[in-house]
C-alpha cells in the first residue's frame, strides 16, 4: 500500500504539470514568440504529438529495462525539458515542448500497470486511481496557475511546474520494481515418472 500511495502522488504531480502546460502553452508561446494564434496552435500540436510518441516509446523501453527505472529517468529528463519550455529563447521552445510531452507520457501506461502490481488484490481500484482520480487533480491546479498568471505573469505561473516532475522523480526513487508473477509451468510427465528397476 505504501508503494501505491507514492505512485499515486507521482501521478498527481505529473498530472499537474501536463494539464497546466496543456492549458497555457498556446498562450505562452504567443507571448514568447510574439506570433499569431497559429504559433500557439503549433505548440499545442507538438505537445500532444510528443505524448503519442512517448506512450509508444514507454512500452518499448519497459521491455528492455524495468518500469520503475524508465519512469524515474523520464521524470528526470522532464525536469530539464519543462525548464526549457519556461526559459528557452525563440523557436527552441517547440523542441522543449516535444521533450516535455514525451518525457511525461513515457511513464503514463507504465504507471497504470505498476499500480495494478502494487495492489494485486484490488486491480480495479488501482486502475481507477491511476487513470481517474489522480489525473483529474491536475485540472484543479489550473485555476491556481491562472490566478498566479493574472497577478504576476504567465511565465511566473509556469515556473512551479518545473518542480512537479522533480517531485515525481523523488517519489520513484523510493519505489521498488514489483516482482513479476509468472504462471507455474506444467511439469513434463516424463520428468515425474519414477524409474523402477
TrEMBL record:
Entry annotated with the keyword Nucleotide-binding: no
SUPFAM superfamilies for the chain: MFS general substrate transporter (SSF103473)
Gene Ontology molecular function terms on file: transmembrane transporter activity
Any one cellular-component term (Gene Ontology): plasma membrane
Keywords assigned by UniProt, alphabetized: Membrane, Transmembrane, Transmembrane helix
InterPro entries on file: MFS, MFS_trans_sf
Pfam families on file: MFS_1
Regions that span the bilayer: 7-29, 41-63, 75-106, 126-149
PANTHER family: FOSMIDOMYCIN RESISTANCE PROTEIN
Listed name of the protein: MFS transporter
Organism: Streptomyces coelicoflavus
